[in-house]
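Example pasted here:
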Amino acid sequence: MVLSCGQFEVNRSCILSIKYMAEILGIGQNTYTNWKKSLQDKRKGSSQPNNAKYTDEERQQALEALLLNPDMSPSELQAKCLDENGVYLGSVKWLYILLEEVKCNNKRGTDKNSNKDDSVERRTLVATAPKQVLVWVITYLYKTNPQGEYYYLYAVMDLYSRKMIHWEVHDIQSAEIAAKFIEKAVEKVGFIKGDNTLIRADGRNTDIFGKVLELHSDNGAPMRGSTMVAKCLELGISSTYNRPRHSNDNAHMEASFRLVKHGHEIAISQSFDTLSHARAWGDKNYNWYNNIHRHSGICYITPPACFDGKGGEIMSRRNKIIEKFFESH
């Protein structure tokens, strides 16, 4: 078969395949196919015509902010500057490029654990709004004297907003203390006790899958103790627990303990001399966690802002600042 193309005639059997020509040109076959759909070069590292052009002054401002906040990821720092200063430092990708240029991007922010050996399906907790699912756990704080003994930090979090609802430090861990602790937490969330169930103090319905409030924890003795179980039944709380030897079923609480114990903002003592010392540290730490720390799981806003439903307002304000920046660039 012969095809006519203007002044030339081409034998159909001699037309080269797309795969062959892509190899000759040094591009992938998928790249050619994508270019047919759009002429924009979307390859990693390619220069885009719509990239923002940052001035030397803006570059210096971004570098100073990055170097003065070594414990913050670029995403968290970008959100902080938008909220507190009304300043857009630049795109997250560009901030990472700046860190690479000054050789300061090694293990910045939170390390991601790539271990995927867990072959059993992970327990999934679902919350579509605040005041639906609470997660809690108890962790150890070292005593100065006698060595080898501990204080016990009880903490409970609202899963949706990541807000730390209530925390206490005690000499011992027991189901009796846990029952009183959870009852106080439920009151702080905004529930009152009705007839064999909980009722929201504001009268609004928060049922999710037929549950008023779900409480999740690990399998520790205080969580499974008869007093604690009886308290949950009394309040009408639905209780769920980790699978044995799977702490990542309560990953949100474990992650919060990692942050408060190993972060640099509110340093933890190697050991605590007294119970009041440990409690003072807990109050200071969770004040920072709730009111200053911006959580990656909720678009880098503070947990109370998310809990109170202010997330949409904050994100709208950030977007206006970013739009104004791009208009001027």
